[in-house]
Amino acid sequence: MTGQVPLSDQTPERPNRPGPEALYGVKDLTEDTAQRLVRAIEGSRPLRTLRGSQVATGIVGTLGLALLLVGLENAVADIPIVENGWASMLVGLVLLAAAGVLIRRFME
Questions:
Q1: How far apart are CA 35 and CA 41, in angstroms?
Q2: CB 81 within 8 A of CB 94
Q3: How far apart are the first and last CA of the chain?
Q4: 27-47: pLDDT as tens digits
Q5: Distance from CA of residue 105 to its chain's centroid?
Q6: Which of 15, 33, 90, 105 is most open to solvent, judged by the fewest CB atoms within 10 Å of its CB?
Q7: What is the reported pTM?
Q8: Mean pLDDT, rounded, of the chain
Q9: SS3 assignment for 41-92
């Protein structure tokens, strides 16, 4: 030998971690779990009652939208640039322009 270390001795020992082959069944497992969850929720009596009433569905949807908007407002309040009113309007215009460009590209 000329003093070279064999390739098997050069590579470090790999700990007992799963490799890429462990990910092959993940998609099937998540799809199966999602289907079971949907079946369990759709079969429940409160959900069937809620779907049967347009007023209750509207109230739940409105509350969900209101909570989403309050959450967004609280999250944006922590961004330093948005504390200034003019900067807030500028950021809003930039976001609206970006959304417009994306929508235009999707429409083509």
A1: 10
A2: no
A3: 66
A4: 788 888 989 888 888 877 877
A5: 22
A6: 15
A7: 0.44
A8: 80
A9: HHCCHHHHHHHHCHHHHHHHHHHHHHHHHHHHHHHHCCCHHHHCHHHHHHHH
